[in-house]
């Protein structure tokens, strides 16, 4: 049994880890969503973050506790779960590149988050609206297309020509791209739609992940939370209908 720790009310970064656990068919507990009578709740998460469970102390959720191991940082959590769930690439070079992709994916997530919180995470969006407007404008025009075209080229140049980012079959980094695209479709439906015109294979990859039986079943389950006020937020003013 693996324990996942993440904020209980948002999909957020925890969702990247959850998808790997789900697709890998791994038994896990989403600890902060459990009741305190089951050893869960936020208090159980803070016990780790505040060092009351001893070393190693993660800086921030998500993190996994797997036996004696405490694994933090989203990309590392995903790689750890992927190793257990058969979702790592087989070749060593592909595994290394997959980790690079996962880490780059976290850079992308950070940039997406910073469109609505460009100045400080401790301030509300309403307290940084002008800066968010500038940041989101550059994100829509430059960063969003740049990241999506990079992913598109990875699929295009994959020697196995299988429609995945690395190697001949779905791996954990495909799940990550799928989740980021879901989030972007929610947060920036207009800009994402425009950018996806240049990334048809990314679209196909996302549809293939969505059709994976474990992912399709998860999406129908109460374990899958809707986007609310986490990383992927929609503000009309940050996503105008036309590029101009
Ligand atoms: N690079 C870290 C970022 C972790 C992170 O920012 N977690 C958020 C939730 S999505 C958090 O609770 N951060 C608290 C903080 O930074 O103080 C990762 O990918 O895991």
From TrEMBL:
Residues 1-89 form the GST N-terminal domain. PANTHER family: GLUTATHIONE S-TRANSFERASE (PTHR11571). Residues 91-242 form the GST C-terminal domain. The keyword Transferase applies. This is Glutathione S-transferase. The keyword Aminoacyl-tRNA synthetase does not apply. CDD domains: GST_C_Sigma_like. Keywords: Transferase.
């Amino acid at each position: 049994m693996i324990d996942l720790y993440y904020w209980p009310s948002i999909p957020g970064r925890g969702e990247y880890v959850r998808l790997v656990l789900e697709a890998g068919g791994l038994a896990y507990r989403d600890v902060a969503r459990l009741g305190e009578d089951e050893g869960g709740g936020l208090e159980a998460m803070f016990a780790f973050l505040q060092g009351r469970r001893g070393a190693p102390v993660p800086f921030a959720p998500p993190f996994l506790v797997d036996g004696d191991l405490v694994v933090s940082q989203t990309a590392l959590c995903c790689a750890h779960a992927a190793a257990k769930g058969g979702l790592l690439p087989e070749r060593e070079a592909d595994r290394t590149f997959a980790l690079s992709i996962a880490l780059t994916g976290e850079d992308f997530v950070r940039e997406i988050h910073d469109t609505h919180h460009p100045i400080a995470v401790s301030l509300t969006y309403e307290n940084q609206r002008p800066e968010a407007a500038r940041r989101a404008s550059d994100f829509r025009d430059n960063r969003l297309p740049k990241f999506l075209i990079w992913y598109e080229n990875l699929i295009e140049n994959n020697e196995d020509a299988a429609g995945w980012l690395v190697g001949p079959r779905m791996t954990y980094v495909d799940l990550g791209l799928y989740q980021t695209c879901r989030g972007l479709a929610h947060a920036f439906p207009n800009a994402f739609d425009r950018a996806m015109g240049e990334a048809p294979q990314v679209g196909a990859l996302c549809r293939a992940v969505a059709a994976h039986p474990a992912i399709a079943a998860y999406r129908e389950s109460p374990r899958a939370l809707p986007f609310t006020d986490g990383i992927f937020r929609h503000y009309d003013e940050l996503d105008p209908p036309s590029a101009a």
